[in-house]
């Protein structure tokens, strides 16, 4: 999941590659050259993540937290806007013009978000988490060793040992306190700051593990210094930031609606609540009807869907090797289903999965797809990441929502195939432009596809897999109404958590992670799943009605993914003009 920090402009991009690369068409090459100029111009603000996305020359650079940060970001954005408008006026190719328009809209959205947040919100960001994320990406085993070596330079810049640099934590203190006297700014949420303080030791220890897993040498003294600085900084946050926080996570409506827009959701909170509550009830009815069939298959005495799910969850798989082996088996079976039922075109190579480290899990406690850079990718592959499951102190294993087979079907369909992994692999193999793969990115068009991928796979899953596929859809329907209700103060966190645990079937840990996500980790983002899913269902329904017997779902799905991450209105236009119209002739 992506999140824009209030402290600095980050570029965390879902972007991946395949060993099979498409040759760029001329118009794509021209579009990409323009896109690269935009990426390069903003790379200086968050070079750790710009380097990961493929912008060359920034492997040794670090976050820009110097004076007048926001003013300089806005100046860069305004200059980019002028440049893009100039290109747009001169461009003749309609496809390149559309890409430029996508980039223009992206820059405008960033300008709006930056201005509103600067006017309304007191800056805050998890500096320790950002440093860990930067090194974790730079020192990934798929990154060439010559690029990993730049981490040694970056490390000394963080600590202030490099000439011309002061410790990054000292700059962070200045940026976080320079506007504290402005009483009308919205303060950080206390729960977020407390959680960051609690997790910081895990990130600090994780840095040592990340470096130790490489062949780098000579980093030990500087890393020890950085760890000491970050430990002291965490105490400073506890003493200086924590007392200056707000008790409620609620956002003003203006900021919440801005968040919705940034994630690709063009609907009011009230509209989302209606969509979500109706969907929630319909999906729950489906689960009530399916649960007795699962109970009959397994010989359970109960037919209540909640109780049946709990019994299925009891079949835990313990240990990383056994658990990840089962995930790989399920992914192979899903590939067979996709191939046999002609759902979508498959890559030649298999999808990959691994278990996260403890620090990675602290940073991202939910299952996700870990992806390498988009620009300049030379064959690095994506990985489906399962959160780490630790044994209890007495040697027993906790009951975990990621450790039983019934759930693995829909989770693998979402994160791997035919979901996220297929989505981005197809884009790279098809030579999709950077504008359509990156600048058009939002949660609605990415997560909407992944939820749709679960739906088209569901009928081929075993009954227990189908039940948990519906449970996953129920969770997404719950999100689309609980998230806005929490942020508008229409439901308490405790009541929302009760719904997630008692009606959706989430365990305590995952339910709390959901509440954190809605309230302060990424308000509004969770609504994008079901919203994007509905948009795709609507587009498919329209396409089927027009084409009738000429509709072939494999062709439809291949076409959708080859368009990249076009916004719903542009995607619908592309389907109408380039998929439906040729078949109607």
Structure, described:
It is built from 25 helices and 3 strands. The protein has 585 residues and is mainly α. The protein folds into 2 domains: 26-245, no CATH class; 269-533, no CATH class. A 3-stranded mixed sheet has the order 1-3-2, with helices on one face. Helix 7 (150-159) crosses helix 10 and helix 20 runs antiparallel to helix 21. Mean pLDDT is 91; it is low at 1-23.
Secondary-structure-derived class: mainly alpha
Show unreliable segments.
1-23
Rounded to the nearest angstrom, the distance between the terminal CA atoms is: 41 Å
Main sheet specs: 3 strands, mixed
**What's the quaternary structure here?**
single chain
| Domain module tally | 2
The count of β-strands is 3
Mean pLDDT across all residues, rounded? 91
Task: Give the overall silhouette.
Answer: globular
The radius of gyration over CA amounts to 24 Å
